[in-house]
């Protein structure tokens, strides 16, 4: 998993301190989920809570620290103490309430009401539960493991056999509701509905034991919104696609691709569906259906049989779509904080505009400095300041082949960069002598 790979690269904490690394280009605060902390220990001076994920990994939730973007900080560890702060979550078996939201569930575990924000705007479509699992026969006319045919939507049926539902974590920072469903002929879904203090996002950490053949599984989120189009993330930007079926061109867009998020927004409200590894989705009117599993048998007759771990999240937001409301939370769901045994000095670099994303940093192919690749994510042109945490001797704008185009003026160890909508910019950065 991404979490395991990140920890193997950074190392394990030693002694009485924990280094926490943030590889994204902005500061991360609020409730932080940290792995690799020895049992019985917690960050000193911070409100904390221990929890266990579906895959058995233990994490510590803490609040009160800020991890700088493209940087790290060191947290002292101390013996964990019981939190004196009461849980902000109120659950009675059918309803769940926090200061940020109110939710209600039906007998099969679906969300039949979801009200978020100060106005408690109802986001569920009347009579249609959210997080409903839909399963149906999937036998495409061609390309068994690749295609989904247009009539497949007519075969989907909701799976309602919920075997159990239990609260497995309830503290000052996190609430975790664990459920088990039987679906199809012999498959199972185990899922943790996770809520964090101070957030209106619902995270669905999911384990699927998949044993179906020629079947398709989706998670449906019918909302009360009526947008004219949906935004789907693609590499270095997003694309807008219609949510209505008014002509043949729109009709054939019954299944489209996305990366980390799809968003439905009105002018004052919006809902995004984030994910960490599932890239097919269908949107119609105000409903999003995330494709979770497909059971084609050609060319591999085993298909995707076995146990799969994945996560997706429902994120309501106010004031319409923006990078801060949707894009940054989607990155954070996909890119966990890393823990290790040593912290760095100043952050490597930062940008001044929230709609500019630092997508990658890599050594230059010819050995001259390192390459920073950035892009504008909102489709809003802007000018931003790129500041460096280590002294630089020169910065060149270059192309994707890392060929220098123009030298940039460095002032106060920073450069100004103009971005057009969705523009990708690559910079070659050469550190001053003695910097590493």
Q: In summary, what is this structure?
A:
Residues about 1-15 have low confidence and may be disordered.
Please describe the structure with a list of short key phrases separated by commas or semicolons.
single chain, 436 residues, mainly beta, six-stranded antiparallel β-sheet, 3 helices, 49% strand
Please characterize this protein's 3D structure.
This protein has 436 residues and is mainly beta. Helices cover 6% and strands 49% of the residues. It is built from three helices and 35 strands. It has helices at residues 2-10, 248-251, 323-334, and strands at residues 17-22, 31-35, 41-43, 47-52, 58-63, 71-79, 90-91, 95-97, 101-105, 111-116, 121-122, 132-137, 157-158, 161-170, 174-183, 187-196, 202-210, 215-222, 229-234, 237-242, 256-257, 261-265, 269-275, 280-284, 287-294, 306-318, 338-340, 349-351, 356-363, 370-376, 382-388, 392-398, 404-408, 414-419, 424-431. The strands form seven sheets. A nine-stranded antiparallel beta sheet has the order 14-15-16-17-26-23-22-19-20, covered by helices on one side. The model is unreliable at 1-15 (pLDDT under 50).
């Amino acid at each position: 998993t991404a979490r395991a790979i990140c920890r193997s690269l950074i190392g394990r904490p030693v002694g009485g301190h924990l280094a926490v690394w943030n590889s994204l280009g902005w500061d991360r605060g609020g409730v932080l989920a940290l792995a690799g902390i020895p049992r019985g220990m917690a960050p000193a001076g911070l409100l904390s809570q221990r929890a266990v994920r579906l895959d058995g990994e233990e994490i510590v939730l803490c609040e009160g620290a800020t991890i700088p973007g493209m940087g790290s900080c060191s947290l002292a560890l101390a013996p964990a103490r019981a939190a004196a702060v009461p849980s902000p979550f109120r659950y009675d078996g059918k309803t769940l309430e926090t200061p940020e939201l109110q939710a209600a569930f039906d007998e099969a575990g679906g969300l039949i009401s979801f009200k978020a924000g100060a106005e408690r705007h109802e986001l569920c479509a009347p009579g249609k539960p959210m997080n409903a699992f839909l399963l149906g026969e999937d036998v495409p006319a061609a390309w068994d493991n690749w295609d989904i045919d247009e009539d497949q939507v007519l075969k989907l049926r909701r799976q309602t056999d919920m075997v159990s539902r239990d609260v497995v974590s309830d503290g000052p920072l996190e609430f975790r509701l664990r459920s088990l469903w039987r679906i199809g002929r012999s498959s199972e879904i185990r899922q943790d509905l996770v809520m964090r203090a101070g957030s209106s996002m619902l995270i669905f950490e999911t384990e699927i034991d998949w044993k179906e053949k020629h079947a398709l599984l989706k998670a449906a989120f019918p909302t009360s919104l009526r947008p004219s189009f949906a935004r789907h993330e693609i590499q270095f930007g997003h694309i807008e696609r219609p949510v209505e079926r008014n002509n043949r061109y729109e009709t054939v867009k019954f299944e489209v691709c996305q990366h980390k998020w799809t968003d439905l927004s009105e002018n004052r409200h919006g809902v995004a569906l984030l994910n960490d590894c599932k890239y097919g989705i269908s949107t119609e009117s105000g409903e999003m259906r995330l494709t979770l599993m497909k059971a084609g048998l050609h060319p591999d007759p085993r298909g995707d049989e076995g146990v799969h771990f994945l996560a997706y999240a429902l994120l309501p937001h106010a004031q319409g779509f923006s990078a801060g409301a949707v894009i940054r939370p989607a990155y954070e769901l996909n890119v966990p904080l890393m823990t290790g045994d040593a912290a760095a000095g100043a952050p490597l670099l930062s940008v001044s505009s929230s709609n500019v994303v630092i997508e990658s940093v890599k050594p230059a192919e010819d050995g001259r400095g390192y390459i920073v690749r950035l892009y504008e994510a909102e489709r809003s042109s802007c000018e931003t300041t790129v500041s460096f945490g280590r002294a630089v001797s020169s910065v060149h704008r270059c192309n994707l082949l890392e060929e220098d185009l123009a030298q940039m003026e460095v002032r106060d160890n920073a450069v100004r960069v103009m971005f057009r909508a969705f523009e990708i910019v690559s910079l070659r950065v050469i550190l001053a002598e003695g910097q590493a």
